[in-house]
Amino acid sequence: MAFTGFSAAGVDLLQLNRLQNSKEFYEEHKNEIKKLAITPFYELIEQMTPVMQQIDAQFVTVPSRMVSRVRRDTRYTKDKTLYRANLWLFFRRARRQHESVPCYYFELHPEYWAWGCWGAWGTGEMQALRDMILHEDRLFLDAFEAVERCPEVTLAGELYKRPKYPDAKPEYQSWLNRKEIGVDFRESEDFAPVLDGSFVGPMLETMKKLAPFYRFLLAGKERAAAVREVRL
User: Which pTM does this prediction carry?
Assistant: First the structure.
């Protein structure tokens, strides 16, 4: 089926399921959750895929491998709540278990909806990106220009308390001082575009414009991997 937007009832049901925090409640409403909350994500993926494959033909496009689970993994967290109220999808390449790879994402949360592009979580990846920034590598300059041309997104990622390269160009400081890096669009007031599906076109247009940023993240991962191989 064609994507026509998300259901407010689906968002409410996910939130109620989290509040109930009950396996019995989840099992009783499992089919309804799938219909109202998960199926729209699958339909959105189908609509997004032709454009996203223009950005990277290696993206995984199997919905069951792209959408987050309603059931939370509570093994390694103090929060033992069984279910989540938000869902998200990733467009990213195939990966090994627990491997982080650059990605585009879309998230729907009861309090906001968001999308963007992220990367540089793996060992040495952010440093590889910093080296590219400091040397004004062409891939970085293209990424920098792409982000500048998309005012609807904001550069994000946890910052160090002190500048790592205080003598670098001022316009590069926000890029250099991240522990990981991404760009986000986030809206917490107007949910109409996600309910009627009108957000998809503008989102995809911006995601295409951000392709140089995505390629910059990929290059950082590849160069960090090459450094690790040399050290071995």
Answer: 0.94
Of 115, 160, 145, nearest to 212 (Cα)?
Answer: 145
User: What's the topology of domain 8-231?
Assistant: BirA Bifunctional Protein; domain 2 (3.30.930)
185 beta partners: 115
Q: What is the DSSP string of 21-90?
A: T-HHHHHHHHHHHIIIIIHHHHHHHHHHHHHHHHH-TTB---GGGTBPPSB---TT-S---SB-S-EEEE
Residue 68 DSSP symbol:
P
Q: What's the Cα-to-Cα distance from 123 to each of 101, 131, 148, rounded to whole Å?
A: 11, 14, 27
Q: Fill in the DSSP letter of residue 223.
A: H
Provide the 3-class DSSP secondary structure of residue 156.
Answer: strand
> Are the C-beta atoms of residues 102 and 117 closer than 8 Å to each other?
yes
H or E segment at 186? Answer: strand 181-187
Alpha-carbon dihedral 3, 5, 36, 87, rounded to 10 degrees:
100
| Closest listed residue to residue 93, CA positions, set 127, 53, 125 | 53
What SS3 class is residue 160? coil
Give the pLDDT confidence of 85-99 residue by residue, as tens digits: 999 999 999 988 888
Render pLDDT for 45-54 as a digit per residue (tens, 0 to 9).
999 999 999 9
